[in-house]
Amino acid sequence: MQRRTGPLAQLRRGHEELVLGLLRRNEPMSRGELMRHSGLSRTTLYDIVGALQASGAIVTIAQDSGQRGRGRPAETLTLNPDAGHAIGIDFARRATHVVVVNVAHEVVGQATEPHNADVAWDERVELAERLVSDLAEGTLRLGALSAVGVGVVGPVGDLGEQRSLEVRKRFGVPVLLDNNTRLAALAESIWGAAAGEQDVLYLRLSHGVGGGLVVGGALHRGSHGLSGEFGHITVDPTGAQCGCGGTGCLETVASVRAVLDAYHAAGGRAADISGLVNSGDTAAQDVLRSAGTHVGNVLAALCNAVGPGVIVIGGELAEAGPDLFEPMKQALDANIMPISRNKVSLRRATLGDVGGALGGIALVLHESPLLSNYPAEPDSEEAT
């Protein structure tokens, strides 16, 4: 689908979102009701409604004539729950996660497919398209999409723009792209473990370590989109070399690979985190205690700096449960300011692997006050 840009196109999209927003909150509504609540002229309103019906975003339903007395049944308008509206994609290191929601903000489906970390970008995008098509079973109305929200690993810069372009070409709509861990923080703060909280620190312990901050009810992106790189805080100046170029970063001791390497060096045999957790052996307990202590120390420093009310821990390593969380909490309590010790709630993430994709959808819908400091529009380049 070719999307036009410019002031008139932006005005029209604004009118479409106004009508869709009214229907989300008040459906069903008649055209007259929509005209009164929207402030749009009759001609404009009917034009917008016609376009939304043609795209499949809204449908008409006839009111029961028995409720109205004599005469022709009045038509009211409602959101079409079968019309695709928003797609969120998380291109994680070793998997692609996809979530599709309809115009009523109901999840149509979600899917995940693991892959090797070295899979080429164009192959990942092709995989995402296939997952979306499989979820929609061939019925997804791409004409009703407003944008695609995309999460990627690491800082978003020039490489992010290139990746955004390929996704835009594939789906034919604008793309909103951000760091996938920051998007997971956004999702947890809207629908997950920290829903409704104003000040949240999110940390994901996965193959990489990163996070996100909600400060004063708004997701903090930082200068050049570099907020949330908690995995690259130094915890051991004499430690291992990190992929970022630093030494002894938190990621070198608390990522999935770092914990497994330490476990195997201590004689452990489990091949993955699930096996490590279930082994119950001393080596597993020791490496988890060490990782949890390092994480707790970093969390304390971050809490002293930004003062969150809630800390949310996600990622595969969070599956370790008490063996990780108890030493984490002990280190946090030992190093946070005493006045803050009982004012911070430590919680486990609830949205799982699709948190980043859900955060991408939140970017597209852009209805959360958490996004008050974020650009309201997708990239302005035309789809080609």
UniProtKB/TrEMBL annotation:
InterPro entries: ATPase_NBD, ROK, ROK_cs, WH-like_DNA-bd_sf, WH_DNA-bd_sf. Pfam families: ROK. PANTHER family: BIFUNCTIONAL UDP-N-ACETYLGLUCOSAMINE 2-EPIMERASE_N-ACETYLMANNOSAMINE KINASE, ROK (REPRESSOR, ORF, KINASE) FAMILY. Belongs to the ROK (NagC/XylR) family. This is Crp/Fnr family transcriptional regulator. It comes from Kibdelosporangium aridum.
